[in-house]
Amino acid sequence: MDEICESVPSQKGAGKLCVRGYLMVKDKCVGNIYYWCCERKKSLCCKGRAISKLSDGHHYLAKFVEHNHSPWLSAASISMIMDGVKKQARETRDLPCQIIQSCTTSAPLHVAAVLPSNEAIWQRIKRARSAQRPVEPKTLADINVPMDLRVTSGGEMFLIKDKRVGENGFLMFTTKADVQKLAVSSFWIMDGTFKTVPKVFYQFYTIHAPVVHGSLRTFPLVYVVMTGKSRAIYESVFEELVAFSEENELSLNPAI
Prior knowledge:
The protein is 28% helix and 29% strand. The strands form two sheets. The protein has a six-stranded antiparallel beta barrel. The chain is α+β, with helices and mostly antiparallel strands. The protein has three domains: 4-65, N-terminal domain of TfIIb; 86-132, no CATH class; 140-247, no CATH class. The model has no long low-confidence stretch (mean pLDDT 90). The chain is built from six helices and eleven strands.
């Protein structure tokens, strides 16, 4: 009983066992004795099984029943890479392309050739991050922005105004540095979108301005999620933006 089987992570987090190139899922365990069946039991009607004994954190193979298909020798490596992708997605704010590059570039050629497509990996990153997000609020009163989302990665205040009156209101996000850019900009561009906001809100409103002298290229500097588009709510947004600028000794007065 000296053949050690490698434990590998699974998409659902339950863990699998790699036995002679086959991925096995746990059927049951009795004490430190684990019973495994082939992960392709249903798809290929495979009757391959294994029994392992857990000792000192290692699974030692006690019995092996042959499978009706060939082993997939890269399966364990792929599972480890995909687990690394999910872990990095949950623990960092890296872009999906950065995560994919970080986790896959060191894979051996024979493993890289059978990895899921970049699109499939991107979807796994999206699911991993979605699972960590709180449940979407149903009313404005349900919204409580976590403290780590109220500041930038550098610790600067980002949620500068949370204004609510009954079921109406808005959340405004910007920084002192970005308002400084607004203050010296010759023109602003305002834009609103209605398709990418939580159901509680009506629109996602942004204020753009050029940040490089002499350039007409603009960047979003202020972000507002609003429950409506009435004149009163727009006026309130700009009143709060002006108030924030004055608190920071800035003057907002674009030419256009």
